[in-house]
Write a structure and sequence with these properties.
Belongs to the DNA polymerase type-A family. With 934 residues, the chain is of the alpha/beta class. The protein folds into five domains: 8-264, 3-Layer(aba) Sandwich (Rossmann fold), CATH 3.40.50.1010; 325-534, 2-Layer Sandwich (Nucleotidyltransferase, domain 5); 549-653, Taq DNA Polymerase, Chain T, domain 4 (Up-down Bundle), CATH 1.20.1060; 688-725 and 806-934, Alpha-Beta Plaits, CATH 3.30.70; 737-799. Helix 31 packs across helix 32. It is globular and about 100 Å long.
């Protein structure tokens, strides 16, 4: 049947369906082989819904699902950087792409993709040919690039909003009708697709220019007539890029190979072929719907995974028998281990817990391995138990496997991609296993599941999670190990005695995993766990294993310098006090300041009754002109630097690597920020000269350089985006110094006449507002009267009312829900928001700051997760993360390439989940030390 008048063609943007399905549903795997199928499941549901909804009046006579063939198209020949900023698809999505094509064919819908052409071009070619033939076309997509096709029988249907898009809707979005859309897009550019456009010109301005001059070529030819100097020069300077942009955004409706509309005629699905495919994918629910539609019996689907409950229908956890540690098994030979490995392979998952003989995984020995592949199942494989007297083994315990034999036997299971390894803080186990050449994957982590659901509401320790979610409290380990001077280490227990607590821990992990899995989608945080938490485990494990070099000689010199400074400060303190005393004693210091010297402002501590001499009290006194409190603050700073860094860092050098290996806590802060321990490398002061000197001791080995890449003012940029503050967004887009601009807005000082003091006041307010600063706090920071500080804050909110609205809305959200959310879906609970007094004030400040700080943490996590792929082929390695900064080590020859690749990843890290209205800017540097690089 030839296509013509009276026919109706539906063109479905298949790639959009795939990504929407992937991000909308929790990860699913096929039970038989662990194949990821979550996006395929969502795609099939959407396609079936489309087919069912398309019946009746105005039904399509022809239809096709159109896909992108590959990332590279003819546009890359026009402009090499086209779509260069787009990240690679997630690893678990890649194998699902061909399955969505199979699904389309199983539904008996035409499936189209052409090498070197984007799906949009194929849709454009078909739409134009159908229109020319006199037919009607509906494009099922919300993609703005397809809006240039609308009109003369072609319309769009936004499947998310179920909204029709005609010429008027296109004008509402672009300010021009469809025939001028590409002119506007060429001027405005597109940061997502890396279409250059004209810098500083957005959609609104572009539409005004096109409407004024008629079309793009007329505008460029008459650019010298534009009154605004900056805009005029931009169009003149970037005319070539604008013309290239026009080519990039214009759909190629002519060059695509011949596509016959007649071959796209709609036909009923072949129910046998469709049910065979759904059965193979193990999509039980949809298969039942299809069978019911064709009035068939229920299909036979073997081992189908249960569909995840919807958020509003989360099933309660099943009632399970109580944990019985008496049932656990001690495995002492490979024959006994074999059936357990078989059971794990059949189940496709195992809870795992390594017992190590020390906290440092990079130097620890393996005491044993606990496993649990199901409820009521637990086993322990002892490998490194020792004797200890009192009936225990005298030397190395008999009847246990060697660590090497145990790991060799477990290796296939630990590396099997079809078996999920579940742990509590499993990064620790992954680091130990990596030392022995075992790549632990894939993994799940119940601590991080809890963190995704309950950050700020509770702790995430194993015992706390077990008691709160399983109702199980295990016996304290000290009942087995003893306490005090006679306490044993775990390795000193006999293996059969150690089995009970070790295997019990593994089964607790298993039950928590089963408990948390359905609750993640119900809580709406599956994407947080799957994209921000779980993928970070191997990245951090690799960084921690890499470590960073330090220069002990330089640290020794600094310690000597600090010791001399401390001696000089102590002399000043004693002279000012008129006596010698213990400067480190708050009680003695309080008596001297308030009782003997008569300073005002002392307040008694609620715990001890002693006069408080905290940093805030001393800063207030110093601000009043008292010299002694300031010198005590100086003494405290230098003392901390000496004790915490210049003296202590040398004790953390690993004897095997010669480097310092910090540990990162993924669930260490409620907002998603990482915490660094043993040693803590995230709290090195950088606002003082002495603090900055510490970074001089972190050095690159010969022939290499340290590279620091740091987000510039990321939290202020995110505030501008989230609160939708036009003045701040414009300043960031145009590269204007944000503190100077703020000072100009607040105090009416022209930017070109701004003085440092006025700028610094605006800077203090800019950063203070993010943390909910009060007039009292700002007064202390700026050392000005409180009334003056409050007047500054009042003026700030008058100039930027959007910030006040953001604060009020965020606090209201916290009170309503008990939590606030970042733009990436992270939830930060604020239980104190319901209290009164100081507790509520603190929770209010946290609620205001958390979505901003949390989003910044999410962005750098996304960058870190993408970084290993970005550095493929380089010897460069990522070593450290310090909040908004990443530190790398690379051969000198790779420095420029490393900076280019890493900056690209970091600046595009928010996309495609969030399209920021302000640019992320990353500043970088390299040097022989961290101080030089930063």
């Amino acid at each position: 049947m030839s296509f013509g008048k009276g026919h109706h063609l539906h063109l479905i943007d298949g790639s959009a369906f795939i990504f929407r399905a992937y991000h909308a549903l929790p990860p699913l795997t096929r039970k038989t082989d662990g194949l990821p199928v979550g996006a395929v499941a969502g795609f099939c549901n959407m396609l079936w819904k489309y087919i069912e909804d398309s019946r009746g009046n105005d039904a399509p006579t022809h239809a096709a699902v159109v896909f992108d063939h590959s990332a590279k198209t003819f546009r890359n020949d026009l402009y090499a950087d086209y779509k260069a900023n787009r990240p690679d698809p997630p690893d678990d999505l890649r194998p699902q792409f061909p399955l969505t094509r199979d699904a389309t064919r199983a539904f008996n819908v035409a499936c189209l993709e052409i090498k070197d052409f984007e799906a949009d071009d194929i849709i454009g070619a078909l739409a134009c040919r159908a229109r020319e033939a006199g037919g009607k076309v509906t494009i099922i997509s919300s993609d703005k690039d397809l809006m240039q096709l609308v009109g003369d029988g072609v319309e769009m249907l936004d499947p998310i909003k179920n909204k029709r898009i005609g010429r008027d809707e296109v004008f509402e979005k672009f300010g021009v009708y469809p025939e001028k859309v590409t002119d506007v897009q060429a001027l405005a550019g597109d940061s997502v697709d890396n279409v250059p456009g004209a810098p500083g010109i957005g959609i609104k301005t572009a539409a005004q220019l096109i409407n004024e001059f008629g079309d793009l070529e007329s505008l460029l030819a008459r650019a010298d007539e534009i009154k605004q100097p900056k805009r005029r020069q931009t169009l003149i300077d970037h005319a070539d890029n604008i013309r290239v942009s026009k080519q990039l955004v214009t759909l190629d409706c002519e060059s695509a190979p011949d596509l016959t509309l007649e071959s796209l005629e709609v036909a009923e699905p072949d129910h046998k072929q469709l049910l065979d495919f759904l059965s193979e994918m193990q999509f039980r629910t949809l298969a039942n719907r299809v069978a019911e539609r064709f009035r068939l019996g229920p299909p036979a689907i073997i081992d189908a995974p249960a569909a995840p409950p919807a958020a509003a229908e989360a099933a309660p956890p099943p009632v399970l028998p109580p944990i019985d540690p008496a049932s656990y098994v001690t495995i002492t030979d490979l024959d006994a281990l074999a059936p357990w490995l078989a059971a794990i392979g059949q189940e496709g998952a195992v809870a795992l817990d390594l017992q190590l003989d020390r906290l440092d995984e990079l130097q620890a020995g393996l005491t044993g391995v606990a496993i649990s592949p199901g409820v009521g199942l637990g086993a322990y494989i002892p490998t490194g138990h020792l004797g200890g007297g009192d009936g225990l083994f005298a030397d190395r315990a008999a009847d246990q496997l060697s660590p090497e034999a145990a790991l060799d036997a477990l290796r296939p299971m630990l590396e099997d991609p079809a078996i999920v390894k579940i742990g509590h803080d499993i990064k620790r186990d992954a680091k130990y296993l990596a030392r022995h050449g075992i790549a632990l994957a894939p993994v799940a982590d119940v601590m991080l599941m809890s963190y995704a659901m309950s950050a700020g509401a509770q702790g995430h320790g194993l015992d706390e999670l077990s008691e709160g979610n399983l109702g199980h409290r295990r016996a304290p380990l000290k009942e087995v190990l003893g306490s005090g001077r006679n306490a044993l280490t775990f390795a000193r227990l006999a293996p059969d005695v150690a089995t009970r607590p070790a295997a019990e821990e593994a089964e607790m992990i298993w039950r928590l995993w089963q408990n948390f899995r359905p609750r993640l989608p119900a809580a709406g945080v599956t994407a947080v766990y799957e994209t921000l938490e779980r993928p970070l485990i191997p990245v951090l494990a690799a960084m921690e294993r890499e470590g960073v070099s330090i220069d002990p000689a330089r640290l020794n010199r600094m310690s000597g310098d600090f010791a001399q400074k401390l001696a000089g400060i102590e002399d000043d303190v004693f002279r000012l006090a008129g006596q010698r005393f213990n400067i480190g004693s708050p009680k003695q210091l309080g008596e001297i300041l308030f009782s003997q010297m008569g300073m005002t402002g002392g307040r008694k501590s609620g715990k001890t009754g002693a006069l408080s001499t905290g940093a805030d009290v001393l800063e207030d006194l110093a601000g009043e002109g008292h010299e002694l409190p300031q010198r005590v603050l100086d003494w405290r700073l230098i003392s901390k630097l000496k004790a915490t860094y210049t003296d202590a860092l040398q004790t953390y050098v690993n004897p095997d690597s010669g480097r310092v290996h910090t540990s990162y806590q993924i669930a260490g802060a409620t907002t998603g920020r990482l915490a660094s321990t043993e040693p803590n490398l995230q709290n090195i002061p950088i606002r003082t000269e002495e603090g900055r000197r510490i970074r001089e001791a972190f050095v690159a080995p010969p022939g290499k350089r340290l590279i620091s890449l740091d987000y510039s003012q990321i939290e202020l940029r995110l505030l501008a985006h989230v609160a939708d503050i036009p003045a701040l967004k414009q300043a960031f887009r145009e590269g204007i110094d944000i503190h100077t601009m703020t000072a100009s807005q607040m105090f009416g000082v022209p930017i070109d006449k701004m003085d440092r003091e006025t700028r610094n006041r605006a800077k203090a307010i800019n950063f203070g507002v993010i943390y909910g600063i009060s007039g009292f706090g700002l007064a202390r920071n700026l050392k000005i009267p409180r009334a003056e500080a409050q007047a500054f804050i009042d003026t700030y909110f008058e100039r930027f009312p959007e910030i006040r609205a953001y604060m009020d809305n965020t606090v209201a959200e916290a009170k309503r829900n008990g939590y606030v959310s970042t733009m990436f879906g992270r939830r930060i609970h604020t239980p104190g928001i319901a209290l009164n007094g100081p507790a509520q004030a603190g929770a209010r400040r946290q609620a205001i700051n958390a979505p901003i700080q949390g989003a910044a943490a999410d962005i750098i996590r996304r960058a870190m997760i993408r970084m290993p792929d970005a550095l493929e082929g380089l010897q460069a390695r990522m070593l450290l993360q310090v909040h908004d900064e990443l530190v790398f080590e690379a051969p000198e020859a790779e420095v420029d390439e490393l900076i280019a690749r890493a900056r690209k990843v970091m600046e595009g890290a928010a996309e495609p989940v969030v399209r920021l209205s302000v640019p992320l800017v990353v500043e970088g540097g390299a040097g022989g030390s961290w101080a030089e690089a930063h």
